Backbone:
């Protein structure tokens, strides 16, 4: 059975799911996307993902040619058509085909694509023992240049940092903003525990406001763990008791080494473990 992809208004076999070479999504990374996950047949925080997709599109003056209701149905239909109960969904809206020039006004037919698949971002061993990460020299792009709050098809900033991580033998890399403050990792948000308090950079540090991040902040609140947004430096990370990353694909993953500094005792800490359990209960419960 070939994989079925939702393209614009219907499901088509993978080999028929094609975009034009003139699509500005391909030519310029002009478009937006989302990554969602379904657990036991239910998409986690579908509305929040759709809201963020629509906000990203609004920020780049792209009109998504269908309603949120239709998009929600497309997500569920694509999962069902591919027999996926526990799956990962990639939602893409491109600017559409145009001329060989930047002008978005000279494009037509934005392409709406929904891909459903399975995902295992990091090996299981990393969830048990914790990740080692390094700081990338590539800074997070400044919001005055391009807001990191837009989940756009232009991810080269993150890919450049990811390459640095991979070259250092790490699967994730830390990104700082232009002020040298901690922003996020290339595809995940970051949290630390300091003096028993959970801290994470605020949206204006230059992050994508992660849906997993927000869920973990709510879980911390429910668990009576003091959690707040704070400006963080690398020093705050190096001297933290615990550190972990969050993301739709990654879920919650401990970090035990940053730039060669052991975090806490070098094993996933109690608050990380508690929030990992609570997150699993939330998404699977
Ligand atoms: N930051 C970046 C740059 C991301 O691309 C992502 C999504 N992979 C995240 C953070 C995490 O966001 P979410 O929890 O909504 O997946």
Residues:
């Amino acid at each position: 059975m070939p994989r079925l992809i939702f393209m614009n208004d219907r499901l088509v076999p993978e080999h028929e799911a094609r975009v034009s070479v003139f699509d500005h999504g391909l030519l310029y990374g002009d478009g937006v996307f989302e990554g969602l996950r379904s657990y036991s047949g239910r998409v986690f925080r579908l509305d929040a993902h759709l809201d963020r997709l629509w906000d990203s599109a609004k920020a780049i003056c792209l009109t998504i040619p269908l309603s949120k209701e239709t998009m929600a149905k497309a997500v569920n239909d694509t999962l069902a058509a591919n027999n996926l109960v526990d799956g990962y969904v990639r939602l893409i809206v491109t600017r559409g085909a145009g001329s060989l020039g930047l002008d978005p006004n000279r494009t037509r037919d934005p392409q709406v694509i929904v891909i459903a698949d399975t995902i295992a971002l990091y090996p299981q061993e990393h969830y048990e023992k914790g990740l080692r990460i390094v700081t990338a020299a590539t800074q997070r792009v400044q919001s005055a240049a391009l807001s990191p709050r837009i989940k756009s098809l232009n991810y080269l900033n993150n890919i450049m940092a990811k390459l640095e991580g991979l070259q250092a033998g790490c699967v994730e890399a830390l990104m700082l903003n232009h002020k040298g403050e901690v922003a996020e990792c290339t595809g995940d948000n970051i949290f630390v525990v300091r003096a028993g308090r959970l801290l994470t950079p605020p949206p204006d540090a230059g992050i994508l406001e992660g849906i997993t991040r927000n869920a973990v902040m709510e879980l911390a609140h429910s668990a009576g763990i003091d959690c707040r947004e704070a400006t963080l430096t690398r020093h705050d990370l190096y001297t933290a008791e615990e550190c972990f990353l969050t993301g739709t694909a990654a879920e919650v993953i401990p970090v035990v080494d940053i730039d060669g500094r052991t975090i806490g005792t070098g094993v996933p800490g109690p608050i990380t473990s508690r929030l990992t359990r609570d997150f699993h209960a939330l998404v699977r419960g």
